[in-house]
Amino acid sequence: MSLRVAHALLLALLLLGWEAYCRLSGVSALVVPAPSAVLATLWQELASGRLWPHIAVTAAEMALGLAAGCAVGFLAGVLLAEVAVLRRLLHPYVIASQVVPKLALAPLFIVWFGFGMTSTVVITALICFFPLLETTLTALDQVDPAKRELFRMLRAGRLQTLVRLKIPAGLPVILAGVRVAVVLALVGAVVGEFIGGRQGLGASIIAAQGMMDSPLMFALFAVITALGLLVYQATVHLERWLLRRLSKG
């Protein structure tokens, strides 16, 4: 039996067990809706077109926050790895800034940036920043000393060593940080929408909670899960493609 078939069978068993429990136990649909009710609600929301704009908003916030956070985190990681004085000076402050929960900062971001997409993107970027910073520092520090010595003997400059040796050698570790950031980006986007979003899947969950519409909340959870898995798998395929190209080059 293939792994995909096993996954599908396990999911089917879980859904059947969930459906049987809801039908036989008499539990209120307000507490735990049956999968059939969740699926019907999800189909209704998708077919009516009401859900697509919220999916688009959350996906855009996720993409913008992920891109900004990863870019800044990578550049900061390279800078701190290459300049030892800056690393000793700034790294403790970076760690201290990450100790503060981003959810606690959300009201402040709303004051600064207002309600809507901007504050959510900022929260998402801050969440994605640290994984790239740390993985970049780790990747650049773990380059083979013998290869560094070879580049030094060949009189390669600092920038040349960074671009031709350190970053390519550390790319698998850096890309692992990107995968972590992808998962955190969706969390950041949804949490940001909980606090200050007017649109998006997180804002829709809050609206469904206000209406005590449990099937809709579960349907939104399913959409968020599907979106996260889709983006994560796309990232994994992109990582494999980049590493194959690097190995051939």
Describe this entry's structure for a reader.
The chain is 86% helix and 0% strand. The chain contains 10 helices and no strands. It has helices spanning 3-25, 35-48, 52-82, 84-99, 102-113, 117-141, 145-153, 158-196, 201-210, 214-248. The chain is globular, with a radius of gyration of 22 Å. The model has no long low-confidence stretch (mean pLDDT 85).
What structural class do you assign from the helix and strand content? Answer: mainly alpha
Number of strands: 0
N- to C-terminal distance: 37 Å
Number of helices: 10
Low confidence ranges: none
**Average pLDDT score:** 85
Helix content: over 70%
Strand-residue proportion: under 5%
Give the SSE order as H and E letters: HHHHHHHHHH
Index terms:
0% strand, mainly alpha, 10 helices
Task: Briefly characterize the structure.
This protein is mainly α and 249 residues long. The protein is 86% helix and 0% strand. The model has no long low-confidence stretch (mean pLDDT 85).
List the helices and strands and how they pair.
Layout: H1 3-25, H2 35-48, H3 52-82, H4 84-99, H5 102-113, H6 117-141, H7 145-153, H8 158-196, H9 201-210, H10 214-248
